[in-house]
Amino acid sequence: MYQVSLVTAAGAGFNKPTSFVGVLSEPVAVCVAHGLTGSHTNSHNPEWSNALVVDWTASGLTATLVKRVGSSDLIQLGASKTDNSVNAETLVDLMMGHCATMFKRKTGGDVWESKKAIAKLRTACETAVRTLDRGASATVEADGLVDGMDLRVPVSKPRWEMLSGSVVAKGKELISSVSEGVNVDVVLMSGSVCAMPSVKAMVDGLFEGAWTGLGNVACEEAVMVGCAVQACLMVEAGIEESGAGKEQNIVVEAVDEVKIGLAKVVGDAVDENSIKVVVRNGTAVGVEVAGFLAGISKGDTAAVVDMNDGNKVLVKIENCDEGELKVGIRLGKEGELVVRVGDGEIAC
């Protein structure tokens, strides 16, 4: 049986709530936007257990599993994979290759021999890719691209889906690997690439029957919406505590890095080589993050440590069982750090 205890008296525990107040990681922000954290009334069955957040932006693709903690509004971040090679620039490169080939076939001009022509072609292709996210066709146009010759290449939606098929297939492989063996109830999409009909169709085909989020939250804006909803909830909570009509002063402390970790304790000292980071910048209020510490022997002592304060021990976990130690850590709405081991909780 675990014995969990605060190391010091009240007031000496975690004291940096404002370090986290305005920071949300992308998957959490998307969940907030669609109401999975109880941020507003859900329009779907609230008995969901597992969600998958597909965040496909200009910088790459990240798929993250999110688990609901019991029947509460708390969520727990799970497995996550990222592939930065399947980004918006890759799609533009595919369009550029197609247009350069068509241009040379028609005019004999070689776009790749001129840096100026390449830059001009890239700008035109970026515009065309954005147009194809919404429209049925687009025309890539560039006046005087090479030796005074103009570029005019029409691209239909079917042609574009064929050109981008390799990128979509690679994304499908990553998403499938993250969700393998998990019964996904909710699939949420974020980022400009997710606006592509072929990407939407691919994800829908992988998770038939899963709820796909609130219809009024556009995938390109999901992260921003989530951050705005979280900010409004924070302000409302402040007004309720101090009384309606009173002015609210919200102070945000600027920090470079915030880290809370798990570690073994040997004697009275923390084994710094064993520290595993659990909570860092990007962890949202009310979101439980699971921390794992391997190589625990029966009777060992572990600790939750503030890595920004000389690995200061906040909570001791004594009489551990042999194997892997699992600890849930979340930030309460008033900034307190809540540690859960088994069925027990303790607030710092």
UniProtKB/TrEMBL annotation:
InterPro entries: ATPase_NBD, Hsp_70_fam
Pfam families: HSP70
Molecular function in Gene Ontology: ATP binding; ATP-dependent protein folding chaperone
Domain of life where this protein originates: Eukaryota
Gene3D superfamilies from the UniProt entry: 3.30.420.40, Actin, Chain A, domain 4 (3.90.640.10)
UniProt keyword list: ATP-binding, Nucleotide-binding
Name this polypeptide is given: Uncharacterized protein
